[in-house]
Amino acid sequence: NIGHQENRAFVNLLDIRMEKCTAQQLKECRYLALVDASAPGVNNNIPHGTPVNIVIDHHRADDEAVAAAEFVDIRPGMGATASILTQYLQDLDVPVDKKVATGLMYGIRADTRDFRRNVTPQDLNYVAFLLPLADNDLLDKIMSPSLSKETLDVLGKAIQNRVIRSGYLFSNVGYIRNRDALPQAADYLLNLEGVNTALIYGIGDTGILLIARSRDVRINLGTVLAEAFGEIGDAGGHPNMAAAVIPLTYFSMVDDKEKLLSLVIDPILKRFDNIVGLEKKEGRNAL
């Protein structure tokens, strides 16, 4: 299932054929490429340890499967994976049709939030190359689709349940079916006055999901989340945007997921508090 409304519009309007890969098909696959994914099991459903042949991404990775890949191009300094792919086409002098150019333009704009986040001069150079080749009317339609009811519900819960502590906003959105709604909620609440960092979390059928956004240059969210949750799940990202997934393992059979989340979330968030020194900041503010 494609959760984010822009991703659905992207697939539909560009007429992209998608197939869901089963575990058996993955097992039989003789050649596997990860694009915009740093490692098996990191923000994807590919089992940890699955051999991969190609990895192209702009997120840093430290994984045995990546180290063993035949071709690895990971550039944390680049704003979007689509920029890396555009460079390949440009350097190899591959003809770029309108549909491909539009898709790559969307990738750069989406990853950099319309050139407002982690954008580099290289990204802008590749945008200049793609701009005359892309269908900009179609691109506007992809980037302004209708908001789904489920996404709106998650946004509503995030707003209603927000707690702000010394510039850090935390919000529990409960049980979620559409994980793509969490980044949208984090991006939205980061705009709230007095908020420098937003951490939105919820629980799915197999794990606890945490999404963080920040405009505080003093912290590196990717490093913070990796230190806080790396031992108990998958975590990482960029200085101002990061994510973590903590598997439920034996607790995945629990029916009341929201109650389970309320029971376990405090010690989980305590890990984040300790690394960013939130309790110390609150202590100083109380003096």
Strand content: 15-25%
> Alpha-carbon distance between the termini?
50 Å
Annotated CATH topology of the largest domain: inorganic pyrophosphatase (n-terminal core)
Give the helix proportion (percent range): 40-55%
Instruction: State mean pLDDT (0 to 100 scale).
Output: 87
The string of secondary-structure elements, in order, is HHEEHEHHHHHEEHEEHEEHH
The name of the CATH architecture of the largest domain is Alpha-Beta Complex
State the CATH superfamily name of the largest domain.
inorganic pyrophosphatase (n-terminal core)
Assembly form of the protein: single chain
Kindly name the structural category.
alpha/beta
Number of domains: 2
Largest sheet: 6 strands, mixed
Structure description:
This protein has 287 residues and is of the alpha/beta class. The protein folds into two domains: 5-142, inorganic pyrophosphatase (n-terminal core); 149-286, Diaminopimelate Epimerase, Chain A, domain 1 (Roll), CATH 3.10.310.30. 42% of the residues lie in helices and 17% in strands. The chain has twelve helices and nine strands. The protein has helices at residues 5-13, 23-28, 64-67, 81-91, 98-111, 121-130, 136-142, 149-160, 181-189, 221-229, 257-276, 278-286, and strands at 33-35, 54-57, 71-74, 163-165, 168-175, 197-203, 207-214, 234-238, 241-247. The strands form two sheets. A six-stranded mixed beta sheet has the order 4-5-6-7-9-8, sandwiched between helices. It has a three-stranded parallel beta sheet with strand order 1-2-3, covered by helices on one side. A hairpin with a 2-residue loop joins strand 4 and strand 5 (168-175). Helix 4 (81-91) runs antiparallel to helix 5 (98-111) and helix 4 (81-91) packs across helix 6. The longest helix is centred in the last third of the chain and has 20 residues, at 257-276. The radius of gyration is 20 Å and the shape is globular. The N and C termini lie far apart (50 Å).
